[in-house]
Design a protein that fits this description.
single chain; 158 residues; alpha+beta; 4-stranded mixed β-sheet; 3 helices
């Protein structure tokens, strides 16, 4: 019962944040913001976020993102979902809630098949968790006008 309460609180917090963002930006009741960024090889990461102020929900649509690549910067959909939930939690700066699945309840994530964010089973993905995930974070925060882009890397050394 307690975990359900935590998830419900997180969901409500995200819904309220989406509504506030929509009003602050002067958006229509159902409106879209977008952003894009590029990997070092020029592969585009494109994002359109359609916010429904009435329901407090949003669709994160990565249509137009580049195709899977031969290298290892492809990222499975879980990496994109992780970056989205991280950004949503960051955007709840005035709310002290634990990170949990409730944050994604009002969110739909659409990722084109065979893209760098939803590659085929044969594509290499190891670098996607370290580099591509940071670019996803950058593009989400850019769409919300939340901060400038990072350096685009976790700086993991091996």
């Amino acid at each position: 019962a307690y975990m359900k309460h935590i998830q419900d609180c997180a969901e409500l917090s995200v819904r309220d944040m989406l509504r506030s963002f929509s009003l602050r930006e002067g958006m229509r009741a159902l409106d879209t913001v977008s952003a894009e960024d590029y990997l070092d090889d020029g592969t585009p990461l494109r994002l359109s976020i359609t916010v429904d102020r009435e329901s407090g929900s949003a669709v994160f649509d990565f249509a137009g993102t580049g195709p899977e690549i031969y290298g290892n910067l492809n990222a499975p959909p879980a990496v994109t979902a992780s970056a989205v939930i991280y950004c949503l939690r960051c955007l709840l700066a005035d709310t002290d809630i634990p990170l949990n699945q409730g944050c994604l309840a009002p969110i739909e994530i659409r990722i084109p098949k065979n893209s760098i964010l939803n590659p085929s089973d044969k594509a290499a993905v190891v670098g996607g968790n370290v580099l591509t995930s940071q670019r996803i974070t950058d593009v989400v925060l850019r769409a919300f006008k939340a901060c400038a882009a990072s350096q685009g890397c976790m700086n993991n050394l091996t």
